[in-house]
Amino acid sequence: MTEVTLSNVVKYYGKHRAVHGINLAINDGEFVVLVGPSGCGKSTTLRMIAGLEDISDGEVTIAGRVVNDLPPRERNISMVFQNYALYPHMTVRENLGFSLVIAKADEAAIAKAVDEAAEILGLNELMDRKPAELSGGQRQRVAMGRAIVRHPDVFLFDEPLSNLDAKLRTQMRVEIKKLHQRVGNTIIYVTHDQVEAMTLADRIVLMQDGHIVQVGTPLELFNKPNNTFVATFIGSPPMNLVDGKVVGAETIELYGGLSVPVPAAARGLISDGQHVKFGFRADNLMPVGHSVQEEGEKADLELKVTLTEPLGTETVLFTEIAGNEVQAKMLNPRPVRPGEVLKFQLMLDKCHVFDAASAEAIRG
């Protein structure tokens, strides 16, 4: 059973603390994605698991063994980097088998492992080429194959798709997902791209400023963000946030004069006069006649459209609520002119309330 556990892990660079005592348990065979903005500590955390960075304090265990003082080669992990790190003078076959050659494995065992990796990743026709003759996606598959041949306990991926164009990134996400389904190893994957995190992860670990902000399945983070940072980082477009104040116990007065009922999840948990941020996603604000028909409490709004982004089967509409630019979605779209006023329905059951001072979610 290859579980990975981080217990109060801290990383200092001089006096600067880059990682603040994080705790995380990753299950055997789980695909966990560390995601967050640049500088949040996700790559540093991955490198401490790999043994490429010293751990300032705390403990990392892999398969029940404390690995703090073990060199990378003794941790039985394989790492796939952003820049592929292939040997340019070697063929694909030689690159795939090189780590086993260094380990002085039997030639027959090397050939078998290389052939298995090539089969899994569709590299059979590329075995005699050198990296310069490969596309970016092919090079990344070779880098993944080189990790597979070692039969590691854990795969570590450090932003492996960031050098690829949008189409290749989509293709390689599928390849990585298929790889996990076939080999079943524990995978820890670092990215700054929330779309990668949402599409690949069994669980997402969202980090900010060296702290873990929230851990959960992609849908848990999307539907129940702990705070405004999670709400605006996860999901595309990001969640709309509008400033407001609680009036009585049943109403939120949005700055600018518009009022909405308090969503059911926050009722009884907020107080008169409390300053809040009212949150909702573009999918929860839709024009009448161009929306998903759902049961539940709704608020009717008339809003002026300022900008449109046609996306084929849907259009993103930009409008304003209480002086805040917000985004809505139109399904089965028709052309909309800037300045046109439309009737919208806001699905209150899907809305969120955050305390303005702490930015924390208010819900039962």
Structure report:
The chain contains eight helices and 20 strands. The chain is globular, with a radius of gyration of 24 Å. The protein is 23% helix and 34% strand. Helix 3 (107-121) crosses helix 4 (136-148). The chain has a six-stranded mixed β-sheet with strand order 6-7-8-3-9-10, with helices on both faces. It has a five-stranded antiparallel β-sheet with strand order 13-12-11-14-20. The protein has helices at 42-50, 92-102, 107-121, 136-148, 166-183, 194-200, 218-223, 228-233; strands at 4-13, 16-26, 31-35, 57-62, 65-66, 77-80, 154-158, 186-191, 203-208, 211-216, 240-247, 251-254, 259-261, 275-280, 285-287, 298-310, 314-321, 324-331, 341-347, 352-355. With 364 residues, the chain is an alpha+beta fold.
